[in-house]
Amino acid sequence: MIGYSEAPRAWGYTRGMARVLGLSLTDAVVEGWLSRQELGRLVDACQTCDKTDDCTRWLARNASAETLPGFCRNAPALAALKP
After folding, report:
1. Considering Cα of 13, then 14, then 19, then 25, what sign does the dihedral take?
2. Which of 23, 34, 46, 65 could link 28 by a cystine bridge, Cβ 3.0 to 4.6 Å?
3. Which of 17, 2, 6 is nearest to 51 (CA)?
4. 77 phi/psi in degrees, rounded to 5
5. Residues 39 and 30 sit within 8 Å (Cβ to Cβ)
6. Cα–Cα–Cα angle for 20, 23, 25, rounded to 5 degrees
7. Which pLDDT band holds residue 2 (cuts at 50, 70, 90)?
8. Contact (Cβ atoms closer than 8 angstroms) between residue 17 and residue 45
9. Tell me: the pLDDT tens digits for 16-57?
């Protein structure tokens, strides 16, 4: 199983933002189109972000979206993973 026990909140936000775009980060790693190191960088970027309150509110209001909010540090990288 892929997860980040040292950064569970950041992993949850990163995974949540990907899910809103219709992406499974776990599948991406298992299928080989995202490396574990790349995923780690996404989680690290989220962990150092100061917009967790904004992120929580945005995720609570959006089950799906074509794009992520501008405050998301991982928006460009996650958008690039969309098929």
Report:
1. negative
2. 34
3. 17
4. -65, -40
5. no
6. 115
7. low
8. no
9. 999 999 999 999 999 999 999 999 999 999 999 999 999 999
